[in-house]
Amino acid sequence: MNHSEVPPLVAGVSVAAAALGGRYLIQAWQAFKARPVVPQMRRFYEGGFQQKMTRREAALILGIRERDALEKIRDAHRRVMVANHPDRGGSEYLASKINEAKDMLTGRTKGFESVF
Known about the structure:
The chain is mainly alpha-helical and 116 residues long. It has a domain at 55-106: DnaJ domain (Helix Hairpins, Orthogonal Bundle), CATH 1.10.287.110. Helix content is 58%, strand content 0%. It contains four helices and no strands. It has helices at 6-34, 55-62, 70-84, 92-106. α3 runs antiparallel to α4.
């Protein structure tokens, strides 16, 4: 084997490897673009409210755990209230349930029931 034959062989193998790698990347990109779009939005509690709210229902309404910290309860209340505020097209009924849920989880009221 002559030293002058090695560089063209190495160059040929390199070009072939680059072509196969490029082909794989193009196929992967096309598969990525063709994947179904799945919305990444969080799902909120859809309602079907109980007559007297429980801690479980309150946590579902706010999208948190029953025993979360006070700051997390306040943040969740703020987020859900902004999305459902009556001044922005939400209903007063939903706003009252969201406030009731916050009060239930923060322990501000015992046995409180919505005015609706």
